[in-house]
Structures are given as structure tokens and as C-alpha cells.
Structure to design on (340 residues):
């Protein structure tokens, strides 16, 4: 099987720090190669992979402001489809733009929908629903007007996360600094329970950060440590009593939740989008409806067995399970299936 893996080019594959879509693409690509699949990864030229790397964009768009995004994403997507005849399948992780090329080639196209940035992009998905097979990353993120071949949860490389059986004392927020992610609520919870909070992630909304977050950052009770790479991520998530994931939007999946749980760290998350699918209530964490519920959950989270938290992630969200699922989807696409 010859697979063209179309990655985003906002960040390197795998990302140096932030880049959840790129991280998933990397994990899937390397897992497929280890299974003997002939994969060509279309990503930035500085990407690192065991697959064949085909790149036209020299560096990640988010790391080089001199690169015009429209120019390089056009060249990047065209590069894949101009070579479509050489592949049995194109697996698109680049959102809706590549769908507009799908009718120009005979090679089957599979698109993993990593969430919808807004309803405004959905007409493209509807237009090409008869030509492209879609995979959802959670049941909650399925659009009722679209046909899906399958739902495949993200998986992670468990070897990158060190399980800790002893709980830390502090709380952690790990993700984009944006109102959607509930950073201010995480601060409110930490202050209410009298525990320190470490905030890690890129600043996605500078105004929100300066107005709602920065005034609380004192370097002691509330610390902001920036965007972390894999080793620092493992240390931070593993050292926490719990991860606070009090999102204010319909979370498509929430990679940071399973990364924390892979360290044995439970998750306290707001009931939005996929959260109730990812967090096993009372086992790997608690699903809450508001700040008061999160405050109450902090008092109960220490009773959870961190070994069970880790074991549940290994069972449900491993890289191998994700690779198995996608291999099954590939077989369906090649057999001509579109809807499940």
C-alpha cells in the first residue's frame, strides 16, 4: 500500500513544541512505516520521519514570518495532487482546502477532520462528501449533515510519558492561551482550592493573555512557563495533582487530556464536545459543568488510582490502537466505501 500523508505546514512534523495536528500525523506516519506501509510524508522540509519526505515548504509557517501562507499552502497541496497517480491513497490532514483538488484525481482521498474552525468551512465538506471519505476524531465532533466512514480517536506514544504513581501537589493547565480553553477559570479554581497552578502553552490570544492571565502570574502561586517540548511536557504533566481542562467550546478531542493521563495524572474537564468520551468519570478524572464543580473535583481527585489512569489510556488511546484503526479505514476506502 502506497500512502501519501498530507500534513499541515504551520509547524514541523513532529512539532518541536506546539502543533497537535502535526503531532498526530507524525505518530500515525511512524506507526504505519513500522507496519511496513509505504508512506510518503508531505510536510515542511525540516520534518523528521522514517517515511519518504516530500517537501516544497522550507520551514514551518509559524516559525518564519517571511513565508506567505497562501503561496506555500498552495504549492504544498498541489505537490501532493500532482503526484497522486503514484499513490493508492491520499490521507489529508490539511482541513478543507485539499478537498477542492479531490475531483481532479482518481486516487481515493481520505480526510481526517480535526475539528471545524467555524461553520463557514462546512460547505466545502458537504460539496465533496461524495468524493472524499471522512473520519471524525470523536463522536461529538461529527456534523449531522456529513457522512463519516469511521471515528478514530487520537493515540499517543506511551513511551514518551513516564507514569508516576505518586500525585504532585499542584495543578496544571496545558494548551493554547485562548478564551476557548478556559485558562482564566483554571486560575480561579487553583486560587479557590489554595493550590499552585502552572500554565503551559502558546499565547494564541495576546489581548486575553494580557488582560485575564498575566495579572495573576506571580511566579509562585501562578506560573506561566511558555510552550514546552516533549521532555518538559512529560515532567510537567507527570508532576501534577490534576490537569484542568475547563474548555469553553466544543472540544473536538483534546490531546492534552490523554497526554496527562498517560503520566497517571487525572483530568478535571468541563463537559464540552468530546470531553465525556475521553475522560472516564471517576476513573481517569471528573467531568464537570462549572467552576464550582471543578473546585469540588479537586478535593476528590487524589483518591483516583494513577496506575488505573495510565492503564486506561494504554487501552483506549495508544498509538498502536490508532494505527490499527486507520489501517482498517484504509482497507475500507480502497474497497470503495464512503459511509459507515
Amino acid at each position: 500500500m502506497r500512502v501519501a500523508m498530507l500534513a499541515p505546514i504551520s509547524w514541523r512534523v513532529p512539532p518541536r513544541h506546539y502543533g497537535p495536528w502535526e503531532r498526530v500525523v507524525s505518530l500515525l506516519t511512524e506507526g504505519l512505516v513500522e507496519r511496513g506501509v509505504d508512506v510518503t510524508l508531505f510536510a515542511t522540509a525540516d520534518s523528521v520521519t522514517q517515511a519518504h519526505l516530500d517537501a516544497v515548504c522550507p520551514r514551518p509557517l509559524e516559525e518564519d514570518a517571511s513565508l506567505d501562507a497562501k503561496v506555500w499552502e498552495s504549492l504544498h497541496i498541489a505537490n501532493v495532487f500532482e503526484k497522486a497517480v503514484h499513490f493508492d491513497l491520499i490521507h489529508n490532514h490539511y482541513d478543507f482546502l485539499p478537498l477542492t483538488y479531490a475531483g481532479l484525481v482518481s486516487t481515493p482521498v481520505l480526510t481526517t477532520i480535526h475539528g471545524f474552525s467555524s461553520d463557514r468551512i462546512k460547505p466545502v465538506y458537504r460539496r465533496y462528501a461524495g468524493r472524499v471519505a471522512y473520519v471524525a476524531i470523536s463522536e461529538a465532533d461529527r456534523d449531522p449533515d456529513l457522512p463519516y466512514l469511521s471515528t478514530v480517536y487520537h493515540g499517543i506514544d506511551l513511551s514518551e510519558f513516564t507514569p508516576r504513581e505518586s500525585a504532585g501537589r499542584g495543578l496544571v493547565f496545558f494548551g493554547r492561551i485562548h478564551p476557548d480553553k478556559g485558562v482564566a477559570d483554571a486560575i480561579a479554581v487553583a486560587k479557590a482550592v489554595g493550590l499552585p497552578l502552572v500554565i503551559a502553552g502558546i499565547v494564541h490570544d495576546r489581548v486575553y493573555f494580557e488582560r485575564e492571565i498575566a495579572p495573576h502570574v506571580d511566579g509562585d502561586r501562578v506560573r506561566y512557563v511558555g510552550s514546552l517540548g516533549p521532555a518538559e511536557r512529560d515532567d510537567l504533566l507527570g508532576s501534577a495533582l490534576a490537569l484542568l481542562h475547563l474548555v469553553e467550546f466544543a472540544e473536538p478531542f483534546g490531546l492534552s487530556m490523554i497526554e496527562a493521563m498517560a503520566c497517571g495524572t487525572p483530568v478535571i474537564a468541563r463537559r464540552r464536545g468530546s470531553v465525556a468520551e475521553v475522560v472516564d468519570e471517576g476513573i481517569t478524572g471528573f467531568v464537570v459543568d462549572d467552576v464550582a464543580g471543578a473546585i469540588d473535583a479537586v478535593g476528590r481527585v487524589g483518591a483516583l488510582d494513577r496506575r488505573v489512569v495510565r492503564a486506561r489510556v494504554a487501552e483506549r488511546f495508544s498509538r498502536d490502537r490508532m494505527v490499527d484503526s486507520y489501517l482498517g479505514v484504509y482497507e475500507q476506502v480502497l474497497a470503495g466505501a464512503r459511509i459507515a
About this structure: The chain has a mean pLDDT of 96. The two ends are 22 Å apart (CA to CA). Residues 319-334 form the longest helix (16 residues). The first strand starts at residue 2 and ends at 6.
